[in-house]
């Protein structure tokens, strides 16, 4: 639960813009962030449980992505949207990279300590932050850098 609280604080620090002009709606994205944290937390617990029960990680991955595909197809059928080739290509790449990531995550859970592995894996957001700086030339503000440093320090403290 402490890590979930840390994620919420980190999100607030990184997203909050002091003295910004305009109408900022923090509640909608914070609610989605909280639901995302809850979802990933439950997912982590379920993955850890599946490895403790010695379930086949490939079966779990097929179920995850198969269930996701069923959801996507039903959502497309009800919304009657056309599928675009660009979206299929990007979605396929994301799915492929995600499967590799989860496969590695299952391996780590089978061989390591879950209470350390999940916080370390959660640092994937730093890849997005640094890629945003490098690829999109985004500039980090001082308080955003403080949030990134807090995340790194939190990982170090997990190991102690």
Task: Please tally the helical runs, counting DSSP H or I stretches of 4 or more residues.
Answer: 7
How many runs of DSSP E, i.e. beta strands? 0
Oligomer: single chain
Percent of residues in β-strands: under 5%
Estimate the global geometry from the Cα principal axes: globular
Structural class: mainly alpha
Indicate the radius of gyration in whole angstroms. Answer: 18 Å
Number of domains: 1
Order of helices and strands: HHHHHHH
Provide the low-confidence segments as ranges. Answer: 1-5
The biggest sheet amounts to:
none
End-to-end gap:
18 Å
Task: Report the mean per-residue pLDDT as an integer.
Answer: 79
> How helix-rich are the residues, as a percent range?
over 70%
SSE topology sketch:
Layout: H1 2-15, H2 26-52, H3 57-79, H4 85-111, H5 114-121, H6 124-135, H7 142-159
Keywords:
mainly alpha
In short:
By secondary structure, this protein is an all-alpha fold. The chain is built from 7 helices and no strands. 81% of the residues lie in helices and 0% in strands.
Description of the molecule:
This protein is mostly helical. The protein has one domain (2-159). It is 81% helix and 0% strand. It has helices at residues 2-15, 26-52, 57-79, 85-111, 114-121, 124-135, 142-159. α1 (2-15) packs antiparallel against α2 (26-52), α1 (2-15) packs antiparallel against α7 (142-159) and α3 runs antiparallel to α4 (85-111).
């Amino acid at each position: 639960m402490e890590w979930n609280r840390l994620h919420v604080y980190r999100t607030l620090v990184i997203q909050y813009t002091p003295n910004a002009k305009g109408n900022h709606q923090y509640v909608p994205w914070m609610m989605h962030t909280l639901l995302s944290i809850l979802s990933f937390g439950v997912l982590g617990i379920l993955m850890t449980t599946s490895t403790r029960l010695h379930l086949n990680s490939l079966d779990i991955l097929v179920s995850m992505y198969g269930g996701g595909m069923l959801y996507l197809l039903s959502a497309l059928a009800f919304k009657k949207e056309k599928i675009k080739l660009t979206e299929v290509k990007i979605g396929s790449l994301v799915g492929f990279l995600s499967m590799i990531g989860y496969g590695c995550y299952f391996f780590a859970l089978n061989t390591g300590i879950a209470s350390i592995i999940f916080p370390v894996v959660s640092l994937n957001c730093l890849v997005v932050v640094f890629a945003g700086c490098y690829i999109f030339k985004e500039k980090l503000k001082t308080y955003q850098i403080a949030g990134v440093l807090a995340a790194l320090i939190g990982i170090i403290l997990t190991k102690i």
